[in-house]
C-alpha cells in the first residue's frame, strides 16, 4: 500500500517540550512538523517585550527548535510554525543564523510578514464595548492589534520549496491547511479542502491533547506513560484524517481522547470559523481501525468568513502578587487575620487599587469558599493579588502584604512578591483588505 503523507504536532504553545517533537521528527514517520507557538495573549506579551527591546518580540526558542529539527530538515522534512509572534524579521534572522551555524546549507527559510492592523483600526476609530470607549480614546493604554491570518502566505512559501516556514499571528489550523495543501498536491483551496486541512490543524495544535494530556483522572481514566507523553501525528486521506502516535511514546490515542480534542474551544460545532473556512464539525464520525489509531470523517466546508478577526491588546495597569505561608495549628484563622490586616493597610492607596482578592491555595483559589477548609489543617499558603492603576501602587501593595512576614501574626514564612503588566485582549472584526501579506525567502 502506498504510504500516505504524514504531519506531526510540534507544540501547542511556545513553552511546550522540545524532546517529544524531536523524537517524532527523527522517527522517520512524519514528513511535516507543525509548531503552534501562540495563545490569545502571546502577541500582546511579545509586543510588550519588543517595546522594551526592538530585537525581541519573537519566540526565543526559535533557534532551539530549528537546531532540534536539524536532522529532520536535512532529510527533506518540512517545519512550519508561528515563531515570528510580534517580530517576524527577528525570528527570520534567528532561524537563518541557527541554520548556518548548524551547517544546513541550501535550506530555504520562508517568512510570512503582515497582520498588524493597529493603524487600520485607529483610522476606523472602532468602538470596543469591553472598554466603553473607541480605540483612539485608549491613548497610551493601546498596545497592539493583530489579525488572524489564513493559509495563503504559508502555501506560497511551501510552493517555493521552503523547508522551514515561520510567521506571526497565523491562525493555528491555517498552518495545517498549508501543510495539507502541499502534502496532497492541491492546485488551490476549496471550502471542502480547507475543511480537511482545518480539521488536521485542530488535531495537531493541541499536541498531547490527543495522546492523553489533560485526560488522566485515576482511577476513572488512566493514561499510561504520562511521564513520557508523546506528541501525536496525522496520516492524510483524501477526505479523512487518521490520528496516531509513535508506539514507543507514552500516552494513548483513543476515541475518547480524540473526542475531547474535537470539542475543544469550539463554540458552535456547526460553524467553526477560521480565516480559511466556515467548517461544520457536527457530523464528524470517529472509527478506531487499530490500537492508538483513530479515523475522522464527515467535516463539511462552507465559504470562508467575510471578515477576519483581530485581537487588540489594551493595558489594564499592573498586577501585583504577594504570597506567603502560615504554619501550625490555627493557620486558617491567622490567614483570615492577614486578610483583614491587608484590607486595612491598603486603604490609603484608594482608587489606585482597582480590585484585589485574598486566596488560600487548595481551599479558595479555584472555588472561593473557605468554609470547606479542614479544621485540622497544619499549614497553608496564601496569595494576595491586586490590579493597580500605577506601578507605585503595585509596589506598595506588595510591600504591605510582605510586611506580614515581619510584624504581624505568628508562624508566617516564605514571602514572595512580583509585579507584571496587566492587560486585556479584545477580539474585533476587521476587513480582509486591511491586511497585506508579504513573503520572504532566504536560502542558507
Rg, Å, rounded: 24 Å
Distance between the termini: 36 Å
Number of strands: 20
Count up the helices. Answer: 13
Can you list the strand order of the major beta sheet?
13-14-10-9-1-2-3-8-4-20
Description:
This protein is of the alpha+beta class and 444 residues long. It folds into two domains: 6-114 and 149-305, no CATH class; 316-424, 2-Layer Sandwich (Alpha-Beta Plaits), CATH 3.30.70.100. It has 13 helices and 20 strands. The protein has helices at residues 19-25, 42-52, 62-68, 70-74, 88-101, 118-124, 152-159, 172-183, 191-204, 255-262, 331-345, 391-402, 404-407; strands at residues 6-11, 32-35, 78-81, 108-113, 127-128, 133-134, 142-147, 164-166, 233-236, 241-244, 272-273, 278-280, 285-290, 293-297, 300-302, 308-327, 353-360, 379-388, 412-430, 438-443. Strands 13-14-10-9-1-2-3-8-4-20 form a ten-stranded mixed beta sheet, with helices on both faces. Strands 7, 16, 17, 18 and 19 form a five-stranded antiparallel beta sheet that branches. Strand 1, helix 1 (19-25) and strand 2 form a beta-alpha-beta unit. Helix 3 packs parallel to helix 5, helix 7 (152-159) runs parallel beside helix 8 and helix 8 packs across helix 9. The longest helix has 15 residues, at 331-345. The chain starts with 5 loop residues before the first strand and ends with a strand. The mean pLDDT is 95.
Amino acid at each position: 500500500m502506498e504510504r500516505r503523507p504524514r504531519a506531526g504536532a510540534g507544540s501547542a504553545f511556545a513553552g511546550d517540550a522540545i524532546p517529544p517533537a524531536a523524537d517524532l521528527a527523527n522517527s522517520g514517520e512524519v514528513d511535516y512538523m507543525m509548531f503552534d507557538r501562540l495563545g490569545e495573549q502571546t502577541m500582546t506579551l511579545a509586543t510588550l517585550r519588543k517595546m522594551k527591546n526592538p530585537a525581541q518580540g519573537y519566540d526565543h526558542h526559535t533557534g532551539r527548535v530549528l537546531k532540534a529539527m536539524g536532522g529532520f530538515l536535512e532529510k527533506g522534512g518540512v517545519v512550519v510554525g508561528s515563531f515570528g509572534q510580534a517580530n517576524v524579521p527577528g525570528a527570520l534572522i534567528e532561524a537563518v543564523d541557527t541554520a548556518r551555524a548548524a551547517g544546513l546549507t541550501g535550506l530555504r527559510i520562508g517568512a510570512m510578514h503582515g497582520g498588524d492592523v493597529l493603524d487600520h483600526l485607529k483610522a476606523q476609530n472602532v468602538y470596543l464595548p469591553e472598554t466603553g470607549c473607541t480605540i483612539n480614546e485608549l491613548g497610551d493604554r493601546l498596545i497592539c492589534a493583530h489579525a488572524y491570518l489564513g493559509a495563503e502566505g504559508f502555501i506560497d512559501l511551501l510552493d517555493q520549496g521552503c523547508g522551514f516556514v515561520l510567521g506571526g499571528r497565523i491562525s493555528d489550523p491555517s498552518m495545517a491547511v498549508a501543510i495539507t495543501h502541499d502534502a496532497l498536491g492541491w492546485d488551490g483551496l476549496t471550502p471542502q479542502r480547507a475543511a480537511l486541512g482545518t480539521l488536521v490543524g485542530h488535531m495537531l495544535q493541541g499536541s498531547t491533547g490527543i495522546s492523553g494530556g489533560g485526560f488522566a483522572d485515576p482511577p476513572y481514566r488512566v493514561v499510561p506513560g504520562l511521564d513520557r507523553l508523546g506528541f501525536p501525528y496525522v496520516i492524510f486521506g483524501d477526505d479523512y484524517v487518521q490520528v496516531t502516535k509513535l508506539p514507543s511514546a507514552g500516552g494513548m490515542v483513543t476515541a475518547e481522547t480524540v473526542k475531547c480534542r474535537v470539542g475543544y474551544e469550539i463554540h458552535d460545532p456547526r460553524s467553526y470559523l477560521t480565516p480559511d473556512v466556515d467548517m461544520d464539525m457536527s457530523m464528524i464520525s470517529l472509527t478506531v481501525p487499530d490500537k492508538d489509531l483513530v479515523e475522522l470523517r464527515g467535516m463539511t466546508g462552507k465559504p470562508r468568513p467575510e471578515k477576519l478577526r483581530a485581537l487588540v491588546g489594551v493595558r489594564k495597569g499592573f498586577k501585583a502578587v504577594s504570597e506567603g505561608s502560615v504554619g501550625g495549628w490555627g493557620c486558617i484563622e491567622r490567614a483570615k487575620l492577614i486578610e483583614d490586616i491587608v484590607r486595612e493597610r491598603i486603604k490609603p492607596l484608594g482608587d489606585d487599587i482597582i480590585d484585589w482578592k485574598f486566596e488560600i491555595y487548595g481551599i479558595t483559589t479555584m472555588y472561593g469558599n473557605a468554609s470547606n477548609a479542614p479544621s485540622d489543617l497544619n499549614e497553608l499558603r496564601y496569595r494576595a493579588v491586586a490590579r493597580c492603576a500605577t506601578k507605585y501602587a503595585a509596589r506598595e501593595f506588595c510591600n504591605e502584604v510582605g510586611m506580614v512576614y515581619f510584624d504581624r501574626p505568628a508562624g508566617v514564612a516564605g514571602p514572595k512578591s512580583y509585579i507584571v503588566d496587566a492587560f486585556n485582549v479584545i477580539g474585533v472584526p476587521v476587513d480582509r483588505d486591511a491586511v497585506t501579506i508579504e513573503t520572504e525567502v532566504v536560502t542558507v
